[in-house]
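Appendix B. Extra example for self-study. Work through it before the problem class; the solution is given directly after the inputs so you can check yourself.
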Amino acid sequence: MSDARFRPGDRVRVHNVDPDHHTRAPRYVRGHHGVVVDSAGEWPLADDRARELPDPRVEPVYTVRFAARDLWGGGGHSVTVDLWQSYLEPEAEA
Amino acid sequence: MSDTHASTPVAARVRRLEERLIEAGLVSEPELDEILARYLAGASPLNGARIVARAWTDDDFRSRLLSDANAAITDVGLSMRSGLQEQRLKVVANTPGEHNVIVCTLCSCYPIGLLGPSPSWYKSEAYRSRVVREPRAVLTEFGLTLPDDVEIVVHDSSSEIRYLVLPLRPAGTDGLGEDDLVGLVTREGLIGTAAV
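Solution. Structure tokens for the complete assembly:
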């Protein structure tokens, strides 16, 4: 079990990686900045489960809110995406 | 419709898979039937409607629903435990200034137990790709035109969390009780592609 690294209000960036296995980090948020709005419990990492690894990592999942103008260059709305901890890094590291 | 489905290639594939699971001793035929029956028998948008009607009439339930939906929905006899793994339910409330809408861009995740099987458009590539990018235009196509000052929040169900929209209670319904209100709530209202 990983310790929770982020809290609501934290600014984060989604790792801009394109793994060759299944992942639940949608492509349209990779590399983008958002704000953690909720902690959504701890869940087995989908990437590990899809690869049928014997002991899938269990990680905190966060609801992260992205501004449409950051994702698409326009639009007044926002999009929330639920992301496993290892998909994220603190904004300062970006 | 089940008659026609039984003869499709997908149905044959599902049946072969079931047979292999049974042969391998992982599940028995009656167990499989029971799991499927339990999962689908109670799956209906009526469940979501009952949650909403209770939230409209009971402020304490509403606040518990928004902070811990899994616990709150046991009040109306529901749970997120009907599948193989309990899923987390997050209820997002519309307000006069904010409208919520649900999608799963990666596949078609959906709170089946509370809303029944999902509509075909929910699974379409057009809806999944467009609603995160231009939700106002998509909602207009559904017949829902929101005032410009209403902010739209799109929730992409990318993990084990399932979403349900708590629509605004319609004006002029002050005299209605919980049971009457249930009948006003639509599946599209619970997804966020319509107002109630």
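Self-check: The mean pLDDT of chain B is 92. If your reasoning did not lead you there, revisit section 3.
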